[in-house]
Every structure is written in C-alpha cells, then in structure tokens.
Amino acid sequence: MDIVRTWAVFRKELIHIRRDLPSLIQVILLPVMLLLLNGYALTFDLTDVPLAVYDQEQSRVSQDFLQGFRGTRYFKIHSSVFSYDEIADLINSRQVKVALVLPFDFSRSLKTGQTARVQAIIDGTDANTANLIIGYLQSVTAAYSQQVILKRLHFKGFSRLELPIKSDPRIWFNEDLESRNFIVPGLIAIIMTMVGALLTALCIIREKERGSMEGLMGTPLKKWELILGKLGPYFLVGMLDMFIAMAMGEFLFQVPLRGSAWLFMVLAALFMLVVLGQGLLISVIARSTLDAYQMAMLTTFLPSFILSGAMFAIHQMPQALQVASYLVPATYLVTISKGIYLKGIGMKILWPDALMLCGFAAFFLLTAGRKLVKKIQ
C-alpha cells in the first residue's frame, strides 16, 4: 500500500467535505441536537405526579394520611373533588394521573383496628407510568400504616418495637437513580452509530452518481488505498462528534465519567471503524443516494435504539430478540459506555466487547472491499 496515493485520496475527500459545508455543519450539529432533545426529553424518573383527592370523610385523620403524599416529591395534589364524575373528567382531560378516594369510615376503621381501604384510580394508558405510580402509592401507604401500627402497640404498652427483618439497600454506580446517568451513555452509542454510518453511506454512491468512480479506478490506486483514503476524513469527523457528545455528557448533563476517558476514546475509535465500515458496505451495495440513506437509517438507528440495551434491558426481551441484540454492534459500545462512565471499569472486564468490535470492523471492511472490487469489475 502506497501512503502517498492514500494521502491523495484522503486530501481529495477532505476537499469534497470542505466544499459541502452545509452537510458538514449538519453532521456536527446532529449529535448536539439529538443529545439535547433526547437527553432532556427521555426520562424514566417520575416526579410531581398530579393527584386528585376525593376525601369523603374530611377528618383530621384523613388529612394526616394525605400529608404523606404532600411530603413526597413523587406526588403533587392537583385538586380536591367531591364526586367520581369529577375524577373521570380530570383523568380523561389528562389533568391528573391518579385519584385517591378515602371512604366515609376511614378514621373509624383505623380506631377500631380494622383495615381502612383507600381506593386509587390510576390512568393506565401508559403502563410503565401506572406501574411506577402503584409502587409509589404503596410506599407512601406502607409508611403511614407502619406509624399506625406503632401507635397501637405503644398504646398497648410496648415502648419499643424492632422489626424482625430490615433491608438496607445500597445502590452502586447511580446512587440517586438519575435517569440521565443511564440514558446519556446509551444515547452516545446510538447517535454515533447513526452518524458514523451516514457519513460513509454516501461516499461511494456519490462517486458512482457523478461518474467519477471509473476515473478513480483507472488510476494505479489499490483497493485498500481507496478505502482508507475515503474513510480517513470521515473517521476524523466522527471522532470530533464523539468528543462533542462526551463533553456534553460530562459538562451539560453532569453524567459522571468514573473510568478512563482515554480508554473510552480508544474503544470509541474502534467502534467508529465498525460503523464507518458498515456505512461503506451500504454505499457499495446501494443503487442510489436515497437507497443508501434509507438503508443506513434502517440498519443502524432502529436496531441500536431498540436492541442495544441503551433504552431497554436486553434480559427483559424475548429470547429471539436477546440473540438478535448481540448482532448489533451498538450493543457492545453501550456496555463499554455504561461500564466506563458509571462503573469505572477497564479492559480487564471490557476486553470481550472490544474483541467483538474488532470482529465487526474486520467483517464490514473486508466485505465492503470485496463488494467494491466486484462492482468495479
């Protein structure tokens, strides 16, 4: 392989990129916009859930129970209502997500040692949100029930009560359970998958549409000189995007980077070779620019968003999709990204993922090279 000829192709591609300044600006701004939109819009945190209260008793005891909902960040009492029709109107108009109905005999049931039943009417159109609401409701109710039990025991002469079992949860890596700490590292992998593939998905097809591909192959250029010269500028642009995404995660979203930034950049560079090779393969087999663009979107963004584990846990997917997820290169960068960002782990643990990325890079680049030769012939 001749370095001079490779450098000539590299410079030629740089000139094309520089002339197409609007596209270059779009490629650089795309990760910024996607991270801003998804980083702030996508969240699994649930706070200030609007709550309606139908307190049929209106007693001091019922208000004491409701104070537990006022004192938590998960709920915000939206309004007090006086009928089920009002509850239906509020839920149907999406003003509240949940309504509590306290019965007429709420305090009497507690005083006589019976179970006071509180009805919770929950908007179930969003199943995930409804499940979270149920969990928070049960938590607040359990805390109040514990207070009632302790008062009853104290009244009977028990001055001190120790629970027989007490769990002591200790959360590692994401102590405050912030969604952005989980989402942003995964988003970086998804965005880089899409951007990297789009960068090269159009490079060969444009040469073919311009009619300059035959001219290139009429030169003494060898296959790998052409491929490396073509990929080089896009690799630099892709790594610039990666650096911007990392900086946004660190300084804008305050996601902790507990591991080695250098290790992440090295493994991100390896992943960039994978997606550039994937884009190059698409560019070789596509018949038009539109075909290349559509193929790049279908084979990168959708699989990486759904199957990579960035947004949805792989172990909760059906068995067939779990197997399919390991055929998505972004799966391994998501593991690397979350491992380095949140856990601070290194190559001692991440080497299998790095090895898989090496395999993907070799497969896409070699296949693209072979297809390129056949196309020319």
Poorly predicted regions: none
Please, what is the average pLDDT?
86
What share of residues is helical? 55-70%
Helix/strand-derived category reads mainly alpha
Q: Biggest β-sheet: count, sense, barrel?
A: 4 strands, mixed
* Proportion of strand residues: 5-15%
Shape, per Cα inertia axes: elongated
**Order of the strands making up the biggest sheet:** 2-1-3-4
What letter string, H or E per element, gives the SSE order? HHEHEHEHEHHHHHHHHHH
Cα end-to-end separation: 21 Å
The radius of gyration over CA amounts to 29 Å
Summed up, the domain count is 2
Number of strands: 4
Put simply, the count of helices is 15
Task: Looking at this protein, list some descriptive labels.
mainly alpha, abc type-2 transporter like fold, 4-stranded mixed β-sheet, 377 residues, single chain, 4 strands
Question: Can you offer a commentary on this structure?
Answer:
The chain is mainly α. It contains 15 helices and four strands. Helix 3 (60-70) links the parallel strand 1 (49-55) and strand 2. Helix 2 (21-41) packs across helix 10 (223-252), helix 7 runs antiparallel to helix 10 (223-252) and helix 14 packs antiparallel against helix 15. The protein is elongated. The mean pLDDT is 86.
